[in-house]
Amino acid sequence: MGENTDQSQKNITGFRPPEDFARNAIVNDPDIYGRAEDDPESFWEENANGIEWYRKWDNVLEWEPPLSKWFIGGKLNACYNCLDVNLKQRADKTAIIWEGESGDIRKYTYKELLEEVSSFANVLKGTGVKKGDIVTIYLPMIPEVVIAMLACARIGAPHSVVFAAFSGESLATRIGNANSKVLITCDGYSRRGKVVEQKNKVDEGIRSCGLLDKVIVMKHYGNDVSMTEGRDVWWHEVMKDSESSCEPEVMDSEDMLFLMYTSGTTGKPKGIVHTTGGYMVATHTTTKFVFDLKEDDIYWCTADCGWITGHSYLVYGPLSNGTTLVMYEGAPDYPDKDRYWDIIERHKVTILYTAPTAIRTFMKWGPSWPQMHDISTLRLIGSVGEPINPGAWLWYHENIGLGKCPVVDTWWQTETGMIMISPLPGITTTKPGSATMPMPGIKAAVLDEKGNEVPPGQDGYLAILKPWPSMVRTVFGNEERFIETYWSKWDNKTYFAGDGAKRDEDGYFWIIGRVDDVIKVSGHRIGSAEFESILVSHPSVAEAGVVGKEDELRGEVIYSYVTLKSGVEESDELKSELTSYAAKNIGPFARPKQIIFSDDLPKTRSGKIMRRVLKAIANNKDPGDVTTLQDPAVVENLKEKTRILD
Ligand code: PRX
Questions:
Q1: From CA 248, how far away is CA 230, in angstroms rounded?
Q2: Given the DSSP bridges, would you call strands 75-76 and 251-252 parallel, antiparallel or unpaired?
């Protein structure tokens, strides 16, 4: 991460878009920036015409800081815009090419997908789901996750997709917060050849809370599961006689399309609310512009539908553009380390969108794996989820993009809904490690503590100065937290992204990483406080402070500083027990890298654990002024314990 800084100061020569790429690009007139800046509302209004509306809006934007509404009075349906609109010209075009980890392949044309989605929408209606009811989806990367999401959108039921690798307990928290009565899941799925017993996780997680009325279970892996009479039904059975046409619900532009839980700075995940009109306009437009989507592209976004990237750039953006998309269920190294390149060769993928952590892993495995395959169909490659270091960027460009593909490093967040800072591949000269410039229609800046713009080269906070169509509308059930988290740092109308950044002399943005208590492990967003509350729920733990430590491969890894209850002995067994406990209670992707026992933690005089100090210790950095700590001696002690691990 620090590398970004060095490169920006070296003023590295950029990569111009290849001439033929630029000539044929959907966006190749740099004037787009000026036009959008002069009149962002007209810019978005113009792009809103890319979406089909039952009724057009009366006003583009109503901005009562920090609350915004977009395309007011507009009526539309997101599912209709992903499927029905494509029937005229693309009924028999492949919408989804799905590949299972075992090598199974399923394909759906737009017409077939519409039929499946409509049938499932009728199933949901049959179980009593009505417009406005939140449906939770807990599925791995199988076509049914897309079908379920779109079926919800069709009948106006907001979906809340929970990442399949989360534990049953994490699922239960999210079901409880959303007050969701219907869950869609599966028996199990394959991860590196081993079964993940998804339905068992559900049963364990929701055992005590008894929240759900109905659980619809897709039979995918074939493992044994227990079905609770009256509550659990099989997907294939309820689908058998379901009618395959379903009128889409007419939704207001500001009706909720989905909830997406994400980690923040407090113990509880927050439900980010996205609405229909602005979100559809934003994702439709940015998918087209950033990925330069053309009719015959084969587009592969490797993100999981359990995260925002899977929502915006696997489902809503690509399908509303009538794209053929590839969806892969499994691990990149199963059965071997060339799986991605094999998929690209066989399906003739033209656009790849993946994460820096994956790129760094491929780099570690070496270029011989991609070289085993013909990946020359690729014409554009993208990155998202965490800062990409220039070394990884260059490797990606050279070995995957074969030196000819523009690289789009896209900065955005669950809360922004759409890509906010990114090259436009037909226009922007890219610099490895920089997400380059805000998208047309987006006004971003790097500000200091007081809200003043910092000079080039200086660190500050990334801020968005004007509203945008797919911005988070609220935190579900907690407007106060919404305002406090995103809008209260400065003046109530400037969005605080939670990231540190700097701009260089050319105005390029370099994202440094989170400045709050969010940890990015392999691009997965994990809250320190959420993690700490899991650790302290263990009977041996008195207190815990959890921070991210920079890591070459994963961006960050989790370091947990733990004080044990009196009378509990420190031991390696307890360390591994706590590691498994955290992994079991959150999900395997959240396994702490180190657990460090300590009799005390750095605390303020009022007893608050100072994560800032712990983070500095974990990263071998200067913790700054520690004289205000209850016991400054703790710092030296922890430094020593941490040093032994390095
Ligand atoms: O820290 C930034 C990082 O990911 C955070 C948002 O995480 P999440 O809501 O899970 O969404 C990830 C996918 C959009 C940001 O606050 N981040 C995302 N993209 C980049 C990035 N950091 C640097 N460069 C990026 N391209």
A1: 28
A2: antiparallel
* Residue whose entry in the numeric block shows the structure tokens 């075009």: 93
Question: Does position 265 have pLDDT exceeding 80, yes or no?
Answer: no
Model-level pTM? 0.95
Query: What's the token pair of residue 505?
Result: 């002399």
Listed in sequence order, the residues at least 6 apart from 82 whose beta carbon sits closer than 8 Å to its beta carbon are 150, 153, 315, 316, 319, 320
Which residues are CB-neighbours of 341 under 8 A, at least 6 positions away? 369, 370, 372, 373, 375
CA-closest residue to ligand 1 atom 8: 413
Q: How far apart are CA 189 and CA 164, in angstroms?
A: 10
E strand intervals along 386-514: 407-410, 444-447, 460-464, 495-503, 509-514
Ligand 1 atom at shortest distance from the alpha carbon of 383: 26
| DSSP annotation of 588 | G
The atom of ligand 1 lying closest to the CA of 415 is: 9
CB 475 within 8 A of CB 177: no
Interatomic CA distance for residues 186 and 128, integer angstroms: 20
Going by alpha carbons, the residue nearest to atom 25 of ligand 1 is: 411
d(CA 173, CA 331): 27
CB-based pocket (< 6 A), ligand 1: 262, 307-309, 384-387, 409-414, 435, 497-499, 511, 513-514, 520, 525
CA of 413 to the centre of ligand 1 (A): 5
- Does 386 appear as a known binding residue? yes
* Nearest protein Cα to ligand 1, atom 11: 413
Q: Using the mean position of ligand 1's atoms as its centre, give its distance from the Cα of residue 92 in Å.
A: 36
Task: Using the atom order of ligand 1, give the atom closest to the CA of residue 421.
Answer: 26
| Cβ contact 638:596 at 8 Å | yes
DSSP letters, 121-184, are HHHHHHTT--TT--EEE---SSHHHHHHHHHHHHHT--EEE--TTS-HHHHHHHHHHHT--EEE
Question: Is 147 within 8 Å of 258 (Cβ atoms)?
Answer: no
To the question of whether residue 46 is assigned a binding role by annotation, the answer is no
Residue type, 147: I
Calculate how far, in angstroms, residue 489's C-alpha sits from the geometric centre of ligand 1: 19
Q: How many angstroms is it from 208 CA to the middle of ligand 1?
A: 34
pLDDT tens digits, 442-453: 999 999 999 999
Q: What does the pLDDT average to over 567-572?
A: 96
Q: Which protein residue's CA is at the shortest distance from atom 23 of ligand 1?
A: 387
- Is pLDDT of 85 > 50? yes
| Span from the CA of 412 to the centroid of ligand 1 (angstroms) | 5
Closest CA to 160 of 211, 108, 210, 122: 211
Q: What Cα–Cα distance (Å) separates residue 267 from each residue in 10, 264, 485, 524, 551?
A: 40, 8, 14, 16, 24
Dist. CA 58–CA 73, nearest whole Å: 6
Rounded-to-integer distance, Cα 289 and Cα 284, Å: 9
* Residue burial 444-456, b: 16+ Cβ < 10 Å; e: rest: bbbbeeeeeebee
Average pLDDT over residues 242-256: 98
